[in-house]
Design goal:
mainly alpha, 112 residues, 76% helix, single chain, 0% strand
């Protein structure tokens, strides 16, 4: 019936210390995540890209973004970053990309 008050104090104190340590660890992780986000935002360039893509590509990008629970723009940024940093010899070269971009720009100018 009677609880051992002397025994309860060290138990409560240990539990409180454990909870404080967990709270401190969570706070440290939150600070690190916030710092990483701030650094990423500082390194980001706020440039809008307007692309003409097929409806099927749009649907696929939106589906993949929804599956990953991220905005479509975040998925597109990640895919573009991966594509740019991948060193695949069978892929298109930067010079080829530039030539395609020039051709598309010329075609757009000719249409207008």
């Amino acid at each position: 019936m009677f609880r051992n008050v002397l025994h309860d104090r060290p138990v409560k104190s240990a539990r409180r210390a454990r909870h404080d340590a967990i709270r401190a660890q969570i706070a440290d992780e939150e600070i690190e995540a916030t710092e990483a986000e701030v650094a990423e935002n500082a390194a980001a360039l706020d440039v809008s890209l307007h692309l003409r893509i097929s409806r099927s590509l749009d649907a696929e990008l939106r589906r993949r973004a929804a599956d990953e629970h991220i905005p479509t723009s975040a998925l597109v940024r990640r895919l573009l970053t991966q594509a740019v940093h991948r060193r695949d010899s069978s892929g298109i070269t930067p010079a080829e990309v530039e030539e395609i971009a020039r051709r598309v720009a010329r075609e757009e100018l000719q249409r207008n």
